[in-house]
Amino acid sequence: MSTWSRNRGGIAVAVAAATVLVAGAALALLWAPEDADQGPSQRIFYLHVPIALTAYACFGWAAWKALRLLWTGEQRHDLESYTAVHMGTIFGSLTLVTGSIWAKTSWGVWWSWGEQQLVLFLVLFLFYAAYFMLRFSLADGPARGRISAVYALFGVVLIPISFLAIRLAENFIHPVVFTRDGPQMSGDMFFTFCVCLAGTLLLAGALYLNELTGKRLDVRLRELREALELG
Amino acid sequence: MTYARDVVALARKDLLLELRARETLPAMVLFVLATLVAFRFALPAGGSERASIGLLWVAILFTALLGLTRAFVPEREQRVLDGLVLSPVDRSAIWVGKVTATLAFLVAAELVALPAYALFFERLSWETVAAVALADVGICTVGALLAAMAAAGRARELLFPLLFLPLALPILVGGVGAAVTDTPARYLGFLGLYDAVFAILAWASFEYVVTE
Known about the structure:
The complex is a heterodimer. Chain A is about 80% helix and about 0% strand. Chain A has helices at about 5, 10-30, 45-70, 75-105, 115-135, 140-170, 185-230, and strands at about 180, 180-185. Chain A has a two-stranded antiparallel sheet with strand order 1-2. In chain A, helix 4 packs antiparallel against helix 5. Chain A is globular and about 70 Å long.
């Protein structure tokens, strides 16, 4: 099978991601109504929040794959979980960067400990950065997959626990958009937000599939090399 | 009740080893005392009283770190773990045994550290003592599992603090919150929740960490 046909799904998702993202950017910049309080700077919301939610989705997917690995013992889940953590960490770092920019435009500071979501992402960033340290320190093999999987499972449990902890550690400056009464956005804003979220999720999906293909090729190449050396 | 007997035997092994070698506990006690003295000099006169309680929690966390870092190193270095995994014990019992032993060390170190804190800084409230007791359980449940993970890797001592600190941040929030806010019960409850959630998760997943 050629690389092209093997990777066709990934390319289709990448094209869809590009299309939806361009549409989302156009909607966010040109069509969505301007926020009465924050003015044009509020438009970073259409970038920041989808990226943050995508990061959560990646971590969740990583934990799901980790659970599947521990459950079934199939090794392919290990690489999938690892790739998802990889993507989640990238989107998590982007959340920190975009959140920091938003904080600067809104409050004039690059960092605010009152921003619970940002603080949470800082904790998660530290946690998942250690995932890579752990993984690279273990010898290749099924044990590495299982230990990484357990760590990834701890991650999704840490998310709500840390969130609760940061909430308890108080302060309320971060603008809360989603409340129990539903989103406090106009319909146009919500639609734009959904398009941007779909685009970001598709982008994460495309990157994930692409990275996964690369990592699988790596593994295959190593196996072939070893077979050559033995033979 | 073979499970309980296994746990007791495993914890007894660690305590006996410590009694003979005397490696971990004296180090933990000396470390926590030295840290508290260092913090005394780090807090300028007229500084906030509330800051010292935060430093106590940092001292406790770092002392636990010192004890836990080496928790599984003898098992790995002298291939004890292979024997334990092969023996007819439930693997989670290995974890419960390790939690029991490390908890004993930590509590022993705190029996020195808390009076020393009261002596050097300020009187301890009952909330802090309760929070320390709850936090110890959480520290050891999470720590014993992460120590087993770190011991499997090449970078052991280097790796463990990196794995442990992000997971221990909620404990800090609970501990400090119980001491400085008007609603300590909420924070103590949070510490209890942390203990329960991570104890279940670690108990269920330990088997996968030690199986080769």
